[in-house]
Structure formats: C-alpha cells, structure tokens
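Sequence in, structure out.
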Amino acid sequence: MTTFVRILATVTVLSAALAGCDGATSETSGARSSAALRPAGANGPPTIAPGPGGRTPVFKHGTPAAGKTVALTFDADMTAEQGPRAARGERFDNPGLIALLRRLEVPSTVFMTGRWAEEYPTQAKAIGNDPLFEIANHSYSHHAFKADCYGLPEIGAEKMAADVRRAFGSFRTAGAKNVVPYFRFPGGCYDDASLQALTPAKVTAVQWDVVSGDAFATDADAVAEQVLEGVKPGSVVVMHCTRSAAPVTEEAVARIVPELRKRGFRFAKVSELMKS
C-alpha cells in the first residue's frame, strides 16, 4: 500500500461500495421497530434498545409512519493523520454547504469526527449550537471498525469505545451543545464483533439507505439524480461535508432540496426521523 490517504481516496470514490459494506451485515441489524425506542430523557433524542447480547443497535431508515420525511446526513470526515494536509491548506470543511442548509432551512445531522472538530472548533461549535443541526459521532480517528474496510487501518476492538468517547470529548471541548448519542462507522463497515465492542459507548449506530455518490464526484447533477432516484419515505441519505473530498455537494444539495419539496417531502434530523 502507498499511503492511507491515497487508499482512502481511491476506495471512497466508489460510493456504492460504502453501501455494499453496510449491506454485508444487514442480517444482524435491520431497521428498528417503534417498540424498540427508548427516549434519552424527557426532551432528549431517542435511542434504540440494545440488540441480542447487548450489541449496539443499528438504525438505517424510518418506518412507514415517517411518511414523506427524509433525513439528509453529512459526514464531516478528517482522519487522525490528515493534520499535515490541513496545515498545507487542504480544506476538510465546507462552510458554504452549511450556509446553504441554513438559507434553505434544512434540518440536518452532521456526523463529525473528533479530529475534524479539533481542526475546526469554531465551526463545530457553530453547527453544534444551531437548533437546525445536530452533531453525531463519526469516530475520532476515522479508522476501520471492521477488517478489510477499503484499506482503512483497523482500530482494534479494545480501542473502539474509547475512540468514540474521545470524539464526544472533542465536541465538548469545541463547545458544541446539540450532540446526539448516534454513531456512524467509518466506511460504513461493521460486524457483530464491532457492535459488541461499542456497547460501553451507549450509542445507536446510524447507517443509511440512500448513497449520494458525492465522494470525489465532479458532476453535481449526477449526485442530485442519484439521491432523487433513491429517496423514499423515511430515507436516510449519506453525503459529505468536506470540500476536498466532496467538492460538488453544495451544488447538488441546491438542486435536491427544492425538488424533494416539490414532491411533498419534508426534511428532518435523524433524531426526529427516529421518533416517527
């Protein structure tokens, strides 16, 4: 292998591969039922009861009760090793996208790595204190929680829960308040062992049922079409909030949002969709 960064760039461009990795474990997770919900306090975000053997539960999409509701989610990716690239001027943030979501009044969930929050603490605080958004956990390091995850270095089961807790600590240090107990696996890769290892972190894993294909895409219209073709009532869409890795996401969202509204869809954060 050359470097981790090159491997990540090579493999994540294939957005369908992300969904494929997630689908490989669908027999152990599936969509949740309303009866499995457990609120985190009177006004807190809902979570899902642990699965068999205490395994971390997985949420992929809403139930039919959600109606024409869709959750746009954005992964704010930055790995533990990418600090030197940021120091040289590479932008892992996307303030234009966040500004667009605000102008269009689109509630959204941002799955943020702890390293991203450390690099952009002012932005993390602004996102995390805006009621339009909620911050969820995308790990601290963006290392793999399962073997053979597109070349990502493995974190090891003994470090998984600590890595997730470290990311939550980064959000607190940045001053973010709207933080939900949800987690998205780097690369979308997980198995029974990782679900078990995450149990101490007390999170609900959130995946998706619509892959936007925005990672390393250069055609915003193609990204928009892929989302518009895939969305159905209760969908969770995975997109990215990183300019260097997803340069056309803002342009694609500018098309996606008004078109879905024309079709009668409304937008919701994951915590809101999970309550449906």
